[in-house]
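Async update (no meeting this week)

Hi team, since we skipped the sync, here's where things stand on the single-chain job. The sequence we agreed to prioritize is pasted below, unchanged from the tracker. I ran it this morning and attached the output directly underneath so nobody has to dig for it. Comments welcome in thread, and please keep replies under the output.
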Amino acid sequence: MPRHVKKGDSVIITAGAFKGMTGEIIRVLTDKDRVVVKGPRIKGITKHMKPSRLNPQGAIITLDRTFHISNVSPVVDGKPTRVRFQTKPDGSKVRVAARNGKELSVLRSADRKKKA
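Output:
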């Protein structure tokens, strides 16, 4: 089943501590229904690493923040929108913004030749 967001989409966070902030999807984790979002005001998760052979001093690292896929919406003209899937007469399938009907991306190109 196609998802309403894809890698590279500009999205807005609709719930949680980062509600209202916008960013870009870096990765979609399909098995967990989560997306990795990068944005100027979206902070990463700080993790403290214990000293080990590879890292004898230990470290403080920053991981990318993930959000559940239901808590992000694509942004069109600065506002969040729902997504519809539309099949065109030539057989191509596209994602369309429900807010204004703007085409977001092509999921399947037109069939070249129909088999008889």
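Quick observations from my side:
The two ends are 27 Å apart (CA to CA).
The chain has one domain: 10-108.
Reply here if anything looks off.
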